[in-house]
Amino acid sequence: MTVASTAPALALERPLLLVGCGKMGGAMLEGWLARGLAPSKVVVVEPAGAPALVARGVTVVAELAAVPRDLDPRAVVVAVKPQTMDKVLPALSPLVGPGCLVLSIAAGKRVALFEGAFGPGVPVVRAMPNTPAAVGRGMTVLVAGAAAGPAERALAETLCAAVGATGWVEAEDLIDVVTALSGGGPAYVFLLIEVLAKAGARLGLDPDLAMRLARETVTGSGELARLSPEPADQLRRNVTSPAGTTERALNVLMAGDGLQPLFDKAIAAATARSRELAG
Known about the structure:
The protein has 279 residues and is an alpha/beta fold. It has 2 domains: 2-178, NAD(P)-binding Rossmann-like Domain (Rossmann fold), CATH 3.40.50; 185-278, ProC C-terminal domain-like (ProC C-terminal domain-like fold, Orthogonal Bundle), CATH 1.10.3730.10. The protein contains 11 helices and 9 strands. It has helices at residues 23-34, 51-55, 85-92, 111-118, 150-161, 174-183, 185-202, 207-227, 232-239, 245-253, 259-278, and strands at residues 2-4, 16-19, 42-45, 59-61, 75-78, 101-104, 124-128, 138-144, 164-168. A 9-stranded mixed sheet has the order 1-9-8-7-6-5-2-3-4, sandwiched between helices. Strand 3, helix 2 and strand 4 (59-61) form a beta-alpha-beta unit. Helix 6 (174-183) packs across helix 11 (259-278) and helix 7 (185-202) packs across helix 8 (207-227). It is elongated. The relative contact order is 0.10.
């Protein structure tokens, strides 16, 4: 998998249609606008409305039927809940014309679903982002359908890079592993913060201080890992003095029944569930 983290400026001659402006869709839109996309080039379909976006010059409508039929978007970003897809795709189909990229961030919905709805010649890219996109530090992995050429892949990557790093896989089945690892990954990191704090509190630390220590340690270590050229195993060794306290803890965490087999089992379970949900 290749990974990129530089978000280029975003300028489109034709409009962009965003279907769904919840947490993830909203985060992506904020990223696009921050990177130079003109508000007048965006049409958002959001039943709940978005007065703040309207005030910034973004066109917001409550339903797909209200989108002008002559919009001719360069890209349609589908950011609705997976369970609403059966209603959305038929209404969206008239808006997907020649040269329109369909970028889906709907979990569990495979490329074939969109190709079936819009035709095999429509370029489709499926993306799996994660929640740190809300602060511009997401990780999004993409997979392209057969009709998505270099230009469509580049546009899809640019759209996703507005909220963090991007990477590609060539086999769509691997998106299920991505879903398990990075899609659900923030929850595992938050759990780590929880258990570290509880362990400190059980040994006598004030619970608020223990939580602060855990949060700052995890977030600070993550930033160090991001900025350092050294691999994670070397960063671990850098903290571990021979026969010291950290080594004693690692002897427990890296034992045969420690973290690695536990995470192997957890990621495999999540991957299996992702495949079940995708049908």
